[in-house]
Amino acid sequence: MELCSFLTLDSFITDPLTHDFMRKALLMSSLVAAVCGFLSSYLTLKGWALMGDAVSHSVMPGVVVAYALGLPFSLGAFIFGVGSVALIGFIKQKSRVKEDTVIGLVFTGFFALGIVLVSKIKSNIDLHSILFGSPLGISLSDVKQTIFISLLVVILLSIFRKDLMLYCFDPRHAKTVGINVFFLHYLLLTCLSLAAVVGLQSVGIILVVAMLITPGATAYLLTDKFDNMTVISVLSAIISSLIGIYVSFWFDLETGGSIVLAQTFIFLFAFLFAPRYGIFKLKKLFAGYK
Amino acid sequence: METINYQNFRIEAENICVDYNGKVALYDANLRLKPGQICGLVGMNGAGKTTFFNALTGFVNISKGKIRINGESVRSAQKDQTIAYVPQNEGIDSQFPISVWDVVMMGRYGSMNIFRSPRESDVQAVKDAIERVDLTDHLSTPIGNLSGGQRKRTFLARAIAQRASILLLDEPFAGVDIRTEKLISELFIQFKNEGKTILLSTHDMIHVREFCDLVLLINKTVVAYGETSEVFTPENITTTFGGISPDFLFGPES
Hints:
The complex is a heterodimer of chains A (290) and B (254). With 290 residues, chain A is mostly helical. Chain A has one domain (3-289): Orthogonal Bundle (ABC transporter involved in vitamin B12 uptake, BtuC), CATH 1.10.3470.10. In chain A, 81% of the residues lie in helices and 0% in strands. In chain A, α2 (20-46) runs parallel beside α7 and α4 (73-94) runs antiparallel to α5. The longest helix of chain A has 27 residues, at 20-46. Chain A starts with 8 loop residues before the first helix and ends with a helix. Chain B has 254 residues and is α/β, with parallel strands linked by helices. Chain B contains ten helices and nine strands. In chain B, β1 (11-20) and β2 form a beta hairpin. In chain B, α4 crosses α5 (148-162) and α5 (148-162) runs parallel beside α6 (178-193). Chain B is globular, with a radius of gyration of 18 Å. At the A-B interface, α8, α9 and α12 of A face α2 and β5 of B.
């Protein structure tokens, strides 16, 4: 990495594209970001940030067991993701412990189980890549699986886009007019588990929750229209992924962390300068100069 | 669909019980309402008003008893869009990024295809409903930018667009301006003439006297039910509110 090579923006962008692994990483991470960004609008509006954290951590033992048994890791992740939510609901109902405590203890329990299993199973699972992501070292079978899951989630979300919006906004009305709220609840959970699985390849299990909430939160500050929120969320997620990967390439930084950090900076920018909801309300500033 | 048989009841609830994990919220509650009747649902916080609404809409399951809506099950009432629920202002997220138009369109979702793509008739229904609540100037306004009264009218428009024959209104007069209150009372008269049945919960005793033909006083179960002039007595109200004197509730004249 020579300093002179990024004197021009052109080579800053094109040089990494000469590497096969970089092209793959950029494409895959953009896809994953788009999926997580799409879902992110729903999760932030539903108030499921903690749930996203719980599910994304809880998939860990599922991923490990699936790898060990030679099954698709998405299957294991899905079972443990949905299972953790069912367990949270069960413990909450049957005990006097408060919900956020139950969520915290269930997901850390699952996560710990995953770590213990990794140390015991001693297969070719790389703990570091599960925890912190490895978009640069993604294998061909992972690519296929990621594309399949991503398409599945995008199709499901697209079909039930409006129903899910209604479910987040006013589930009681949904139920009253005969819309299957139970189905929508589990649909959203399913998409959450699947998105967590593809997201963890990009940024790892620990940070995947950022992929699921930060783009939505950023978009929420920038618009009052749901459709725009989804578009902004997806775009900001993709842009963050591209920035994160480029920056990590040129400065030799951890890729997952760079992607999430880029998302956080975009959020901070919106937080400060969003036209209507930012601290400095850009619209008003400009109006003052007229 | 709009053939009204005035012999039949719109709502029939017989001895219904609702419990949440063994904790009883409502027991042995009965209610019968005919088309064109307006009934007030009065009780303390936690007396089971919302639970009653939830049971009628099927949002919670009843553990005992029977509910018939237009002579059919709650499930088929849901399929037929028979019941519209107008939530309390506090019951919804006012910061949700959604416009007046989109909220009212949600009233049509139940009768749309799986993608919820509006037909011309849906667009017309939404337009008409918004006009009836006098919000035509706010079609694309996000609900977060509306006043409390305007927001209440948005949800009323959703119920109108749904073309429901039964309206359940949770505290329709709480936190609304005079203009909205007047508009709501005019709508009530129109709904009555259209043969719709209205069940509304309220804390305001004056509204009960003004609008309600019938009143249902509840405190986990039915304390009293009947014509407002007969049932809405200081004694019954005192029992409903756990021994608090009605003087305290309406002032000494009552």
